[in-house]
Structure formats: structure tokens, C-alpha cells
Predict the structure.
Amino acid sequence: MIEENKELDIVFVDYSFLTRSLNIYFSGIDEDSENRDKIPAGTDYHEWLETIADYIKTLSRLIDNVFLKGGSPNKQPEEQMNILLKGLKRRLSARQNLVAFCGDEQEINEVLREYCNYIKIGAYKPELACKMNAYNLDGMPLNFKSSNQKLLKKGEDY
């Protein structure tokens, strides 16, 4: 059973020109960091909805991906995540990907499977560190830090 956070809290939202992505960071354990950093408690996701909508409206032509990161999206409350992702999908165009970064290698919840175009699985493992573990995310290279990490595509891998 996946250990879940009790509330869906967002710590911060930013935009990356490098990956052309809107990044949403959740509270919880960052399983992709070398030290499994604990991302501090954030603010209830409802308080971020307007900010996220503004980013999407203002930067729509610059956003290719929305990355769900930080405390694993897979360990967030499913009911609340469902509401957030349903709203995101409604605002995104068909060319914009929703990508969840999960440290879990199994038991990906149904909400992520339903809404995400891609799901990155595998926690960072120092013993499997590598320089190149690249995947193609619709034409954009996406590099992972250890060889156990994989990118799953909706319709092909789940």
C-alpha cells in the first residue's frame, strides 16, 4: 500500500525555459533527490488554482509540458489530485503533456494513469547513478539520474 499525504499541498509553481514546462511541486518526500529530501508543507492546492490558471493562460504557447514533481504525485490524496488534474487537462491543449515524476516503480494510482500522458518511475539510487539515461518526450530529451528510472507513455506502457 502506498503511504499517502493526507492533504494535497503545493509548495510552489514555476516555469522552466529549458524544459518548456510549468512545474508544480507537492509537499512530501522527493524520491528523485540523492538525499530523499523532505519538501516542506505547502499550501492547500485550492489556493494555487488561480496562479496555475494564470501561468497556463499567459504562457500557453511556451508550455509544452506540465511537470508534477516534489513529493511524489503518486502519494498524494487521489480525490484531491483528481480534481486538480481534471482542471489542468481542461485548460491544456492536446499538444501539452501532463507528466508525473514518481519515485514508485509499481502501483501507480488510477488518477495519474487517467490524466497523465507520461509517468516517470523509479527513485534515484546512488548505486545506479549514470550520466545518460535519456528519454524522448515528444521531441525533447529528458535525462534521468539513475539507470533504474524509466518514462512510461500512456497508450503504450499503461
